[in-house]
Amino acid sequence: SHETGVPMMRSMAVAYPAELPLAAINDQYMFGRDLLVAPVVAEDNSRTISFPAGKWSCLWTGMTLSGPTNILCYVPLDTIPVYLREGAVIPVQLDQNLQFGKSMTSGRVSALIVTAPMDKQEVTWLNNQSGSVILQPRARSFVITLTNMPETNYLLIYDAAAVAVKVDGKLLPKLAGDRFNSMPTGWQADPVLNRLVVRLPSSRARQLEIEVEIQPDSVIK
Q1: 214, 140 in Cβ contact below 8 A?
Q2: Number of C-beta neighbours around residue 197 at 10 A
Q3: All residues at 6 or more sequence positions from 31 whose CB lies less than 8 Å from its CB, including other chains
Q4: Distance separating alpha carbons of residues 52 and 158, to the nearest angstrom
């Protein structure tokens, strides 16, 4: 924000100036480039959310939809609607079971939330070594390149029905089960949240290339 002047909390008109119907919406916003936030400001537990063009994945449930569209959503009292745009890259820290909003007093893990891109995306930020993430789509896969990201233990990839995952050209084993706190290196589906969970090798080079081979137009099985 300080380099470009674009605020971190962006009105829909600022974030999507070419989509004129969004300009009149004043009760939802983009948080950074990747998160659409739609607070409930009325007394009932529902609201209409206006989605720009592209695919959007619910951060809390993994449900995916395509815009532009307006959707009436039921919203529990303890939830704020948050959606990930396609090509999102978001670092998070979670409890050892990779659940949002849980206590991390027993330990925490560093993870990277990713959604499949339609075109090349590159994100850089300042950590101890100036890390970066590049997302690159291919015909039936996409590649995630991590540079100077040794603290990242897991990838959480929303809405990607994988048939294989490779790290630096080597196949990772496909795992089974629903417990992530003792997960070895490999990958498995998390069907509850419509995402893949990839446990990265603990010892790795400065740059790591992860290729996710996907089934087009499908969801995680």
Answers
A1: yes
A2: 20
A3: 8, 9, 10, 37, 82
A4: 18
Query: How does DSSP assign 125-191, residue by residue?
Result: E-STT-EEEEEEE-SSEEEEEEES-TT--EEEEES--EEEEEETTEEPPB---S--TT--SEEEEET
Q: Which amino acid is at 142?
A: F
Whole-prediction pTM = 0.89
SS3 104: coil
pLDDT, one tens digit for every residue, the chain (221 residues):
777 888 899 999 999 999 999 999 999 999 999 999 999 988 888 899 999 999 999 999 999 999 999 999 999 888 899 999 999 999 999 998 898 888 888 888 899 999 999 999 888 876 666 788 999 998 889 999 999 888 899 999 998 888 899 999 999 999 987 678 778 999 998 888 899 999 998 867 688 899 999 875 544 43
φ, ψ at 43 (rounded to 5°): -80, -25
